[in-house]
Amino acid sequence: MTALVIDPAIDEPVYGQIARQLREAIVAGALPPGRTLPAVRTVASDLGVNLNTVARAYRQLQEEGFLEIAHRTGARVIGPPASAARDRVEPLRRDLRATVARLLQAGLDRGQLREMLEAELAALGGRRRG
Amino acid sequence: MEDTAILWMVALETVFAGAIYLVLPRIARHGLLFGVYVGEERATAEAARRIRRLWTRWVLGATTVTVALQLLLRRPLGAILCLAVFAVGLLFLYLWSHFASRALAPTAPPPPAVAVLEDDGSGGILPHATLAFAVACGLLALAYAGVSYPSLPERIPTHFGLSGAPDGWSAKSLGSVLLLPFLGVVQGLVLGLLCLLVSQAKRALRLNDGGASLRAQHAFRRAMTRFLCGITWLVSLTLLIASVFAIRTAQGRSAGLPMAVLGLAGLLLVVALGGIVVLAVRYGQGGARLEGAATAPLTDGLADNRYWVLGMFYVNRNDPSMMVENRFGLGYTLNFGNWKAVVGLAGLLVFVLGLTLFAILGVR
Questions:
Q1: What residue in A sits closest to B319 (Cα-Cα)?
Q2: Partners of B309 in the beta sheet?
Q3: What is the pLDDT of residue B349?
Q4: Which of A64, B178, B226, B343 is 20 to 30 A from B352, comparing alpha carbons?
Q5: ipTM
Q6: Residue B110 — pLDDT band, cuts 50, 70, 90?
């Protein structure tokens, strides 16, 4: 059973927590392609948050390519394309380079950085090619 | 004879109410104590048990004394007054228990909110069909009364005894003829919407419990929805038949209300009381009895004491839910922080007040 857990104590906006957990669940395979997510109202009611907060998380994931949102069918998980599209990968690679630079600047060495990356990949689990 | 029947009905009602209030603390969701979230561990500690014991003794005592007084007085009005005092007394007892429970409430922040990405369990057409049926019954009765209005005599029966025969008359007017059918339309709308809202009521889940609270919540919500839909169907049918036969009696085509009306009213009483007992004993409030040991903490609205006033009124402007689970009692309550719920309730109260005034002035 896949659940969203919102912790008001952590320093991350609620919509960000929702989007992050959904993203991780999709990548891990817990929410397979084709799966329809509950309506915005249902999730907002369960979490006791404003409708717009959940809607914002869904829209963010739609922009990132994880969901497609249709008026009648709601939000549906979409799978990754058969091959990585350069125009989608390049901006993300630049973000990754910036994050790596910041982690190195924070004091991590390259070995520690590799271990961190492996740990994150393991945590995401689910569908991986190669 | 009628006075004796009323006296015994009121006394039995007192016994039933007392029995329900005895059971309520035992069917609440684990972790809740008289409208306060104290945590799953503290809810079974000696301090909590002491509050429950006092509650039990006072409810037993009050019920016994009230029923004894009612039977001694031997007057329906006296019995009703005793019941009213009993109800007020129970309210004060609840408030005492509530404030005593507050002392056990944790100071730590409530557990994080949980949403499950599963089917929300509100499917099925029963609530929609119930709303449609109830409103249709009311409109049918209204149409029948409207069409029959010209053929009615100048004095029409407006009250019927237990035998179904008319025992009170009023002058013919729009108010006296259309009041009952109009009530049918209103009750159809109100009860039908209630069924729909309950079927979509907010879920109150536990953190990391493997889905036990989700299954329990869905089972309780389905049972509560079916119960309310059953009540709505019976009330709608009863009002429809009563409206039609009130008109037919006025026209001289019937001697009074048929036994079917009394039969339906009796069935309604059995279903209402029996349903409450089944919901309480088999399911518990919010499915509490289906959750098992329930050591996982409750989350979000039900566990956050900041959003509850006296453990009875839920006020959370951020929460889009209309109906939320009761902390103490059986069933659901409104989210008074949701403006639609407040407007709806205010509208209903204004309408009922207006209808009452219309009935008084119209019937006269």
A1: A48
A2: B313
A3: 85
A4: B226
A5: 0.77
A6: confident
Q: Show the low-confidence residues of chain A (pLDDT under 50).
A: 128-130
Provide the 8-state DSSP code for A58.
H
The per-residue pLDDT of chain B, averaged, comes to 89
Task: Compute the distance between CA of residue B216 and CA of residue B138 in angstroms, rounded to an integer.
Answer: 35
The owner of tokens 């109906």 is B323
B109 interaction partners in chain A (CB closer than 8 Å): 8-9
Inter-chain touch B116–A3, beta carbons under 8 Å:
yes
Residue A6 contacts B, CB cutoff 8 Å? yes
- B236-280 residue pLDDT tens: 999 999 999 999 999 989 888 888 888 998 999 999 999 999 999
CA distance A126 to chain B (A): 17
The structure tokens 């492996």 sit at A118
Q: Which residues contact B39 (CB under 8 A, 6 or more apart)?
A: B31, B106, B297
Inter-chain contact B114–A46, Cβ cutoff 8 Å? yes
Q: Quote the CA–CA distance of A34 and B7 in Å, as a whole number.
A: 63
CA B115 to chain A, closest CA, distance in angstroms equals: 5
Instruction: Give B333's strand partners.
Output: B324
d(CA B133, CA B234): 11
pLDDT given for residue A29 in this prediction:
85
Query: What tokens does A117 get?
Result: 């990356």
Cα separation, B62 vs B64, whole angstroms:
5
Which residue among B114, B304, B318 places its CB closest to the CB of A3?
Answer: B114
Tell me the residues of chain A between 33 and 92 that have a Cβ less than 8 Å away from chain B: 37-39, 41-51
pLDDT in tens, B121-141: 665 899 999 999 999 999 999
Lowest mean pLDDT among A51-55, A80-84, B45-49, B64-68: A80-84
Asked if A50's CB is within 8 angstroms of B207's CB, the reply is no
Which of B194-208, B293-307, B321-335 shows the lowest mean pLDDT across its residues? Answer: B293-307
CB contact (8 A) between residue B113 and residue A48: yes
The contacts of residue B122 (CB under 8 Å, 6+ apart) are: B199, B200, B221
Pick the residue of A21, A35, A46 with the most B CBs within 10 A to test the interface with B by mutation: A46
Is the Cβ of A32 closer than 8 Å to some Cβ of chain B?
no
CA distance B164 to B262: 8
Q: Measure A18 CA to nearest chain B CA, in Å.
A: 10
pLDDT at B120: 63
Instruction: Please tell me the distance from the alpha carbon of residue B119 to that of residue A44, in angstroms, as a whole number.
Output: 14
What's the predicted TM-score (pTM) here?
A: 0.85
Backbone angles phi, psi at B58, to 5 degrees: -70, -40
CA distance B116 to chain A (A): 4
